[in-house]
């Protein structure tokens, strides 16, 4: 299936599903370019031919609609059809971030674990708002890592004597997570309110429909009753006419018999 046209709903859901799978594989999602090449390859395995740039562009469009809370169209009340799928992806992301904060890697010092979690949280939070901002990150990290190793080698004594980070780093991480969870909670509440509103509208529509059907049923019964009454009246008239005819014939016969006698 060529990918030159618009994205269909099934194709879009496949993209979200694949992106959600890679969300759980943090190592595969580190480098943006590699990530979208993997997404493109998996889309091709499922019968959809899309380039990495097309997948990335579509994902950014979905993120913009999701973070912009465009869950409904005020003109016609249509719901954003992929809200629940994206909401599930970001809920899983929040759980992963929390696990990485509470369970540092074995063998790492507390300070190193906090720094790593902070870097991870920042990268993942940035990824929520834009998937394209860290394309050049891998190129920038190479000279940065080389410079960092040289600095550590030449200034090891200074590093050993430098003060350790205080509790402000952990407080900042907790505040960042709290804001993220608050945002997720607000969006979930808005989604629930929208679902409740739609349920109320559906219930109101069903009540109006039921009332209308009951009204039609009453009208049908009234018409049927009137028709039966009319039929009964016609039957009574026919019987009365037949009785008068029989009575007249009887009278005429009696008169003829009397005249003959």
Write the layout of secondary structure elements.
Elements (H helix, E strand, L loop, with lengths): L8 H16 L7 H14 L6 H16 L15 H20 L7 H20 L7 H18 L1 H6 L6 H93 L1
Helix pairs in contact: 1-2, 1-4, 2-3, 4-5, 4-8, 5-8
Distance between the termini: 109 Å
H/E series, N to C? HHHHHHHH
Unreliable sequence segments: 71-78, 105-110, 120-144, 156-163
The description of the largest β-sheet is: none
Subcellular location: Nucleus
Organism: Gossypium hirsutum
Domain Myb-like: 1-63
GO molecular function, one term: DNA binding
Question: Which features characterize this protein?
Answer:
single chain, 261 residues, mainly alpha, 78% helix
Please explain how this structure is put together.
The chain has a domain at 9-133 and 172-208. Helix content is 78%, strand content 0%. The protein has helices at 9-24, 32-45, 52-67, 83-102, 110-129, 137-154, 156-161, 168-260. It holds the Pfam family Myb_DNA-bind_4. It is found in: Nucleus. Residues 1-63 form the Myb-like domain. Residues 101-174 are annotated as: Disordered.
Briefly summarize what is shown.
78% of the residues lie in helices and 0% in strands. The model is unreliable at 71-78, 105-110, 120-144 and 156-163 (pLDDT under 50).
């Amino acid at each position: 299936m060529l990918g030159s046209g618009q994205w269909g709903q099934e194709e879009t859901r496949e993209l979200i599903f694949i992106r959600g799978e890679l969300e759980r594989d943090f190592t595969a999602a580190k480098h943006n370019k590699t990530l979208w090449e993997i997404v493109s390859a998996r889309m091709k395995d499922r019968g959809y031919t899309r380039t990495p740039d097309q997948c990335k562009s579509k994902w950014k469009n979905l993120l913009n609609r999701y973070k912009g809370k465009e869950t409904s169209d005020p003109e016609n009340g249509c719901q954003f059809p992929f809200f629940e799928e994206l909401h599930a992806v970001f809920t899983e992301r929040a759980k992963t971030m929390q696990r990485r904060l509470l369970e540092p890697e074995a063998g790492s010092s507390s300070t190193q674990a906090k720094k790593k979690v902070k870097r991870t949280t920042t990268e993942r939070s940035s990824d929520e708002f834009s998937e394209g901002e860290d394309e050049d990150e891998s190129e920038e990290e190479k000279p940065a890592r080389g410079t960092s190793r040289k600095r550590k080698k030449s200034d090891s004594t200074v590093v050993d004597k430098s003060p350790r980070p205080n509790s402000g780093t952990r407080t900042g991480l907790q505040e960042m997570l709290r804001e993220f969870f608050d945002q997720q909670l607000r969006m979930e509440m808005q989604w629930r309110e929208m679902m409740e509103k739609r349920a109320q509208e559906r219930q109101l529509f069903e009540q109006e429909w039921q009332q209308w059907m009951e009204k039609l049923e009453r009208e049908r019964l009234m018409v049927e009753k009137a028709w039966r009454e009319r039929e009964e009246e016609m039957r009574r008239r026919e019987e009365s006419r037949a009785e008068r005819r029989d009575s007249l014939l009887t009278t005429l016969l009696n008169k003829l018999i009397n005249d003959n006698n």
